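Before drawing any conclusions, I needed to go through one protein's amino acid sequence and its backbone structure tokens, quoted below without any editing.
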Amino acid sequence: MNTVQPNEFVLLIAPDDKRYLVRLTPGQRLDTHHGFILHDAIIGQPFGCRVKTQLAYAYLLLQPATYDLVMRVKRASQIVYPKEIGYLILRMNIIPGARVVECGTGSGALTLALSRFVRPNGRIYTYEERDDMLANARKNLERFGALDVVELKQRDIRAGFDERDADALFLDVREPWLFLAQAHAALKGGGFFGSLVPTTNQISDILQEMERAGGWADIEVIEILMRHYKPNAERLRPEDRMVAHTGYLLFARAVKKGDQGSEIRDQEEEVGDGTE
């Protein structure tokens, strides 16, 4: 039976669906609008059971998902939302052992999600220019135990990235088209590139620079909208609000100029087919 251990994060859901993400510390207690729950009363309990406050309100005890952790980072900036993160992880082939470069770190929400997919032997290299942002991200990542696979770097990326032959690289910066050459140099041949921007003119700027510079293929631009429904079998209908536009995603693959196909084509153009 999977039981809760000390220092473990748990998710507690109140009868009115209010959620609490708690790191269990012996001797501490969680204060809620329904009373308090002693951490010691939760430790050793199985996930999926209910624990009660001293006022007898029953809270559902669950293991938190990556979604819960991402949505509860301390924010110093806008985060990449789970609806984009989920597709991004699949589209950019973020798998165990992958070496992933990210810029900018922001609050560390995407960094946290990526770190949980590259384990145990992968690595996230994340760049952030602002020291206040990086300090907040470090606290968030340390809180959720992600720093063992994350390397934080504070600097302007105009000079390029330290990494070479990275499996994937994601740019979450204001003017990503200015750093496509640096991204291309850091990626391996066929490596995965991604970027998130809020406006269509920014997407156009990226596409124009990709076309001008060359070296990119399999380009995709998408927007992901998400609508929740009220889980009532008798009156099933959408929620009054939805998470609509949060950004446009652009994906591409890095094509190296020295690939075998290019070399063969160059040789054919130089030699010709032997006819006059």
User: Anything to note?
Assistant: Confidence is low (pLDDT under 50) at residues 260-271. The chain has two domains: 9-64, 68-263. Residues 9-64 form a domain with the Vcp-like ATPase; Chain A, domain 2 fold (CATH 3.10.330.20).
